[in-house]
Q: What sequence folds into this?
């Protein structure tokens, strides 16, 4: 049963009206992000994050139309981020942390209310690489907190990255998604010390910020950078049992540990890239490590390449390029600052396709696992019936 927008929000009405008119297979529109959770501040009041639920296997074909709606929103003076959410993910996304977040933080503003009925499991059923994806989300936010070409820092963006990092730590420790920073500190208090596997320093940093301690922007950025990378590496150690302190060895072992589903993920990455952007990668090897995990590690290496004295570490930026060189079309540069900015932009433009490969392959495996489990249950029932007779 479809329902119409109940929000007294002119921009939301514009968004819903244009989606219904431009995307024929849209069955639901879901508001998410800080606006849906009530976290948005006055200066974020012009940002809208929307999932468009589509009931069609041809959903990538409608991306261009959604980009057109985003462009119209910019003309009207507000920022709109539209993402496609196939019904397939809502049905078979059990164990995917990002799908779980949509359920617990999203709000249906038009169409069928999938969020109330979809069964995505609980937080403790979340698969390991889905936590890794959340850690990378923190680092990707932080990448835009500093511009090495100008030396400028975005203090507000850095703080938001710290809050998201602490939210991840609280979620991992307690199983609860907590919106407000003050509530995070209260909820995590009893876990601090020996019960907290990682993240104590990040929580301490947030506590000092909320107490009103002033920070030099550079020191603040690099402190948050160190905690974001530490959280990401800690997740790898806890979830995959990789204890190596050497970043290169950790990268190699992680890519080997996550290779089991790499072929399907890589094929989805390459096909979606070609279908949507008409782009082919000549050096791409679908039989290699997962593109999704190579982008994850490349994001960490790119952040590690930033030095406190304003320079960029050549070895770290080379590692970033080595991870991505056969996944994207780009040329290296001798200018480290220019090269860093290019790599950041490459991660921004391509990461979505790598993440899609991971998310869709997870849904496919979940679907097949469900079919196999159902078939086995029927066999057991049939055998039990024969024995009873």
A:
């Amino acid at each position: 049963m479809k329902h119409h927008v109940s929000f007294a929000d002119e921009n939301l009405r514009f968004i819903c009206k244009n989606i219904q008119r431009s995307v024929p297979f849209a069955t639901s529109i879901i508001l998410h992000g800080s606006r849906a959770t009530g976290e948005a501040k006055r200066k974020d009041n012009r940002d809208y994050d929307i999932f468009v639920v589509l009931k069609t296997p041809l959903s990538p074909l409608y991306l261009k139309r959604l980009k057109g709606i985003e462009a119209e929103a910019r003309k009207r003076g507000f920022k709109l981020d539209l993402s496609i959410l196939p019904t397939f993910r809502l049905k078979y996304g059990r164990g995917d942390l990002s799908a779980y977040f949509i359920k617990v933080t999203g709000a249906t503003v038009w169409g069928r209310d999938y969020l109330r009925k979809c069964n995505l499991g609980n937080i403790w059923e979340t698969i390991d690489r889905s936590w890794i994806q959340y850690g990378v989300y923190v680092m990707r936010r932080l990448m835009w907190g500093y511009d090495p070409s100008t030396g400028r820092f975005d203090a507000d963006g850095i703080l938001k990255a710290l809050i998201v990092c602490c939210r991840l730590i609280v979620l991992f420790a307690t199983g609860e998604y907590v919106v407000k920073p003050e509530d995070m500190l209260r909820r995590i208090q009893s876990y601090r010390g020996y019960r907290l596997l990682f993240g104590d320093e990040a929580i301490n940093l947030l506590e000092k910020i909320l107490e009103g301690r002033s920070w030099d922007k550079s020191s603040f950025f690099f402190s948050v950078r160190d905690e974001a990378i530490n959280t990401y590496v800690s997740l790898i150690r806890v979830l995959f049992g990789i204890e190596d302190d050497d970043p290169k060895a950790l990268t190699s072992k992680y890519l080997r540990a996550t290779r089991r589903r790499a072929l399907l993920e890589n094929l989805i990455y390459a096909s979606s890239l070609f279908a949507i952007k008409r782009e082919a990668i000549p050096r791409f090897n679908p039989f290699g490590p997962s593109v999704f995990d190579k982008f994850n590690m490349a994001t960490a290496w790119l952040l590690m390449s930033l030095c406190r004295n304003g320079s960029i570490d050549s070895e770290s930026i080379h590692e970033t390029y080595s991870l991505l060189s056969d996944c994207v079309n780009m040329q290296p540069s001798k200018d480290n600052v220019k090269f860093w900015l290019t790599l950041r932009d490459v991660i921004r433009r391509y990461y979505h396709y790598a993440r899609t490969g991971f998310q869709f392959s997870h849904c496919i495996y979940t679907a097949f696992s469900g079919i196999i489990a159902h078939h086995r249950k029927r066999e057991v029932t049939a055998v039990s019936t024969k024995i009873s007779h």
Remarks:
- Confidence is low (pLDDT under 50) at residues 1-6.
- DSSP finds 16 helices and six strands in the chain.
